Amino acid sequence: MRFKSLSIGGALALLAVISLCPAPSHAAKPAPITDVELMHQALYSCRHLAPSRRAKIDLKMFGRMLDLEREHKVPTEFRGMTLAKACIESGYKTGIRGDCRKGECKAIGMIQLWPWTRRFGVDRNDPYASVRFLLERVQVGLRYLHRKCPHVKGKLPRYQLAWLRINRGPKQHGKQRCEGLPHGLRLLKKWQKKIDRARRKQLLAERRETRKAMRRLAGSGKDKVTPAATTRAARGR
Q1: Would you say residue 26 lies in a domain?
Q2: Following DSSP, what letter does each residue of 107-133 receive, concatenated?
Q3: Taking the chain, what is the end-to-end CA distance rounded to the nearest angstrom?
Q4: Using one digit for the tens of pLDDT, what is the confidence trace for 37-83?
Q5: Is 230 part of a structural domain of the chain?
Q6: Greater confidence, 198 or 218?
Q7: Residues of the domain holding 147
Q8: Is residue 206 part of a domain?
Q9: According to DSSP H, which parts of the chain are helical?
């Protein structure tokens, strides 16, 4: 394509459009999901959180939970796992009790830890202590997973399985639990899809605005950029 004459505004707009064009699909890699995006989903895409309680949620708690995930090196693909689990288990209520029978409740706290955790001295009513304990036990489970489920390979499948075994128990019907989904993973995947859709929608909106700006600038510039003028400018004449 040949450009005999192009306004300065049009040239600037064209450069802006080119800069916004994505890299080839084989080279493009989506940016990691941010804490703000995860907290937004945790607040507005948790069906166990009543709308009337949203204003009472302390977002600093969400931020601290994500900080704990970073400290315990949670894989990028599972970032937000503690928020998703807390949503499903309690709707982010710190003092809730569950699995109650005959006046005795087994599950206590925001992520509903069971009585077996008491031997480790964890305060199940403390949300941060509970989250820290969960993440630490996942790391411990990873160390011994090759003995319990030797056929499971890969970083992500192994982490998912370690999370599952802490979440739902290491055994099922007397056999080692080596497959399944932990509580919260399905919800986390939904959040990730919603974030991806929101990003795509924003990108399309930005491209539409850029095209509008390009048309406006192309029609408003009076000075023309010709090949000869470009050559003279480059030589400093």
Answers
A1: no
A2: EETTTTB-GGGGGGT--TT-HHHHHHH
A3: 27
A4: 999 999 999 999 999 999 999 999 999 999 999 999 999 999 999 99
A5: no
A6: 198
A7: 6-20+32-220
A8: yes
A9: 8-20, 35-44, 59-71, 81-90, 127-148, 155-168, 185-220, 227-235
